[in-house]
Design a protein that fits this description.
By secondary structure, this protein is of the alpha/beta class. The chain contains twelve helices and 13 strands. It has two domains: 232 residues, Rossmann fold (3-Layer(aba) Sandwich); 62 residues, Alpha-Beta Plaits, CATH 3.30.70. The strands form three sheets. A six-stranded mixed β-sheet has the order 5-6-7-3-8-9, with helices on both faces. Strand 6, helix 7 and strand 7 form a beta-alpha-beta unit. Bound molecules: adenosine-5'-triphosphate (ATP). This is ABC transporter ATP-binding protein.
């Protein structure tokens, strides 16, 4: 990684990707509409949003694979529209459907890419072997890719990114169509990329997975970024709270008493004697006192971070015409 980092123009502290007013129009329609964002080195950044919101088009502009109508994006200090090859050399891209040669083996596929990339012949075998072993494909290195499952193809895609020692990995819906075990393994590999300082940008509809692995997310809607930040920040912004406390308790007027606790923004009755509170702080001690105060019986008290799913659902329900641009 270090050899390539020194060649690129992105500074150690500055963003590795910076978009300003980035726009893509088809005819009169802006499918990506003047978006701004910065992504720091080593960050795992999630692009979220409904189908057609503009996530893939944004990715393609970063890679120089589709025209930029106006605005700009800088990737490791390069302009992908003017220097697509410099970007391509340093950025790994795993599209939704990874294209490999089915009749070639895993090793042969990587060797082909390595040659195209101009990797030194003496280095190729070692890099390919190390990359395949990193993603757990060493045992099937000599098998034709035609025999690979989707999970194995996805891992081969990551091996290619590792082999080329990319500084940034861009993954479009990387876990869609994977079974739960393959998903877990793949998320683990993304965590390893992050641990090595590789910046990861991924688009996904799997909100629980995104919440687990992403440092920050951007929520796209009709070509615009309507929310951006870390999940706890977004929880405060959208739900007005960063804690979810669940209470199971029996006693008179408990819901009303819970709602009176300072810092509680909402109390939902989930079932008889089951309540969910959203709050600005961890209100468990106050909730316990509220139950005891009415001689009630406390059965369960738990605290959690609000889910990205709740934020997403709340945002789209509460703001059908939402246009809180660049809210972070
Ligand atoms: N070549 C094209 N010509 C016209 N419109 C296009 C073209 N490519 C994409 N679009 C439109 O741009 C919009 C954004 O598409 P994009 O693929 O970026 O969305 P997305 O957020 O990645 O969606 P998904 O979650 O389905 O992958 C869509 O309305 C799509 O129909």
């Amino acid at each position: 990684m270090s050899g390539q980092s020194s060649k690129s123009q992105g500074t150690a502290q500055g963003p590795v990707i910076a978009a300003r007013g980035l726009t893509r129009r088809y005819g009169a329609t802006a499918v990506v509409d003047a978006i701004d964002f910065d992504i720091a080195r080593g960050e795992v950044f999630g692009l979220l949003g409904p189908n057609g919101a503009g996530k893939t088009t944004t990715i393609l502009m970063m890679l120089g694979l589709t025209e930029i109508s106006s605005g700009e994006v800088s990737v490791l200090g390069f302009n992908p529209a003017r220097e697509p090859l410099k970007v391509k050399r340093r950025v790994g891209y795993l599209p939704d459907a990874v294209g490999f040669y089915d009749q070639l083996t895993a090793t042969e596929n990587l060797a082909y890419t390595a040659k195209l990339m101009g990797l030194a012949r003496t280095e190729r075998a070692r890099l390919i072997e190390a990359a395949l072993s990193r993603v757990g494909l060493a045992d099937v290195a000599s098998k034709r890719v035609a025999t690979f499952s989707r999970g194995m193809r996805q891992r081969l895609g990551l091996a290619e990114i590792i082999m080329k020692r990319a500084e940034i990995a861009i993954l479009d819906e990387p876990t869609s169509g994977l079974d739960p075990q393959a998903t877990q393994e793949f998320l683990g590999l993304i965590g390893e990329l992050k641990a090595e300082g590789i910046t990861v940008l991924l688009s996904s509809h799997m909100l629980d997975q995104v919440q687990r692995i992403c440092d920050r997310v951007a929520l796209f809607k009709a070509g615009r970024i309507v929310l951006m930040g870390a999940v706890p920040e977004l929880a405060v912004k959208v739900l007005g709270a960063s804690f979810v406390v669940e209470v199971e308790a029996e006693g008179p007027g408990i819901a009303r008493r819970l709602a009176l606790i300072p810092g509680v923004t909402e109390v939902e009755t989930l079932a008889v004697n089951r309540f969910r509170m959203t709050a600005e702080r961890d209100v468990r001690p106050d909730a316990a006192r509220a139950v005891v105060a009415v001689d009630g019986a406390l059965r369960k008290l738990s605290v959690d971070e609000p889910s990205l799913e709740a934020i997403y659902a709340h945002y789209f329900q509460a703001q059908p015409m939402g246009d809180v641009r660049h809210a972070a």
